[in-house]
Amino acid sequence: MYLSLLDSHPRVQWSTAVWPLGGIPRHSFLCWLVTLDCCPTRDRMIKWGLNVSPTCLLCNTANESRDHLFFQCDFWDRLLALVTRRCGFLGDQSWNGCLNNLITYQGTNCQRKLCLLAWQACIYFIWSERNNRLHRNIYRTHDAVFSLLDSTIRNMIATYIGTQGQAYPLLCSVCGSLKGINPSFHAIIGSRCFLSDRYGNISSTLFVLGFSFLQGLSNLGLWPH
To answer: What CA–CA distances, in Å, run from 83 to 79, 118, 167, 207?
Structure first.
């Protein structure tokens, strides 16, 4: 009955980039809205007849729109530069161009998954920072936003260790390398440092506990960043 009530529409090409398996649901949902250009950016609010300033809240140098907020804003550029150095993906300078690059990405499964996680996290935290400045008058630097983004991705990758660790050994190894918590964990995309090789005789539970302990030391300033 449900399917009979639905209109038949062709499958969009960007579905696998917006709704990846194992992604973070709230990130994917926001990415879907941004892809459809349905977020209440200031250019759209003005079209609705609202009396709001058109200026971008992140850079204060240009009018806010989807394409500006996510690919032309200086704040986005600084945040994306921190992320791309760690996941090895160089995006395009336009929304459609970057989306097409992700759709046609030729890397391995774990490389693709990491790129999609990082890309969607960038979108989520940029929009979150914009809303915090607008509604709560809270301002954070791009480094502070990246720290939140980094923790979110590492926590998500940590969930793969127990469930999909065998399928994504390299992705799991990135869990300790995105922020550089310690050189011994350094295993960015393109390296040959696999979690299964280094910790092959240690259960995933012990690894998660050990990593949580090291992360706690790092947060307390007792472990070098």
So the answer is: 7, 7, 23, 25
| Torsion 147-67-34-31 (CA) sign | negative
CB atoms within 10 A of CB 128: 15
Q: Which amino acid is at 57?
A: L
Q: What's this model's pTM, rounded to 2 decimal places?
A: 0.71
Per-residue pLDDT 10s for the chain (225 aa) are 666 776 667 778 888 889 988 889 999 999 999 999 999 999 999 999 999 999 999 999 999 999 999 989 999 999 988 888 777 666 667 778 888 888 888 878 888 888 899 999 999 999 999 999 999 999 999 999 999 998 998 888 887 765 544 444 555 555 444 444 333 333 333 322 223 233 333 334 444 445 444 444 444 444 444
Q: What CA dihedral angle connects 61, 67, 71 and 72, to 10 degrees?
A: -20
